[in-house]
Amino acid sequence: MKDVLDELAAMHRVMGKGSVPAGEAYTVELRRRYDAEIEDVWDAITSPERLARWLKPVTGDLRAGGTFEVEGGEHGDILRCESPRLLKVSWLFGPEADDWPGTSEVEVRLAPGPTGDTEFELIHSAVVGEPSFPTYGPGAGGVGWDLRLLTLGRLLAGDDIVDHEEFEKSPEGREFGRRSAAAWGQAHLAAGGDADQVAAAVEATTKFYVPDPT
Known about the structure:
By secondary structure, this protein is an alpha+beta fold. The protein contains 8 helices and 9 strands. The protein has helices at residues 2-10, 38-46, 48-54, 133-136, 139-157, 164-169, 171-190, 195-209, and strands spanning 12-20, 23-34, 58-60, 67-70, 74-82, 86-90, 92-93, 104-112, 118-127. InterPro entries: ASHA1/2-like_C (IPR013538), START-like_dom_sf (IPR023393). This is Activator of Hsp90 ATPase homologue 1/2-like C-terminal domain-containing protein.
């Protein structure tokens, strides 16, 4: 459990403001350091074989100007691909999302650290008015990214990769989900969120990611 919670604590979370082609956006920003060379981290976020191990299987024309599809429904266009420092994609979910192009983007920035490590930053921008935000706040996407980046860290460290669904159901995974939801609530408060709304969003996010056992 300690190793998992250490990974959770290693992440710096910020809710901010930005823009997407459809207009003003809110952002969830995750920053941390990985003890791996920048080329290794770049390969892990662009190689289909390694993406399948920490994210989900990804198919498509994986180059700048191409398109991609993640198993489960996420899909979009590859907007920028500048090895080994910058990857930017549009990020849509479900068939209905194609009716609202330009509403969500994910950008990953890498920078070499001073000791052969890598500074990692992921920014997910979603248009203001995105339907899940009033209920879940930044935890709607933030907890999911925390879970995925935990697995990316294990991949880069050469550790065993656990099944996402099995991990999320385990006591360790459930505690991770609760603490991640609370951490995104703190980021929401720091960004000026109303305390009552933030508390309700954290509760809803926790129930979504850590449902009562059946």
